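Protocol step 4 of 6: structure prediction from sequence.
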Amino acid sequence: MTETSNSSKTDKALMVFLRNPEAGKVKTRLAEGVGDQQALAAYQHMLDHTRQVAEAVQADRFVFYTDWIDRSDGFSDQLFRKYVQCHGDLGARMEFAFSIPFKMGGYKQVQIIGSDIPALTAEIVEAGFAALGEHDYTLGPARDGGYYLLGMTRWQRHLFSDMPWSTDRVLAETKARIEKDGSTVHLLPELDDVDTEADWVAAGRPGAL
């Protein structure tokens, strides 16, 4: 299911991965410390921030929802092509997402970002696209050992299968797979994502009620 009202104007595609914001279903580890409603408010705040970052980037924009396309959220149908993520683990869902802009044709640089990075800026995302002019991949390292951004110049499925998702080995394993086949990767600044109450406090309690 998709909205395709915005036409391609560039060879760059930026994809946003998000969860439909519902109390008790988003930021569950954060909710263990602050409650469902506060976790929802924090996540909604980070979603709004991510949308603003994406809107400031010079690229065609895609947004992938976990469950349904929300026509009433702030992600404009005129600015974002909208899809529902496929079933499966995170790797399967990301592999599917990357396949769409590459199979559409015309896109030479595709990046995906998460929706829980308070310090993410449009300048960082733009730097990722600039790096893809000289490198095969870009990675935005998260301090927990994962990554908040992944970019590539062609669809590569081997980065997603049998990955130890939700562990501190994701970044290292991804980087090792990239370098194993002789490809090059540019690392962006290391940032924090927000998963726990400690992360939330360290980030300045974004979206605090």
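Step 5 (inspection) to follow. The first helix runs from residue 28 to 34.
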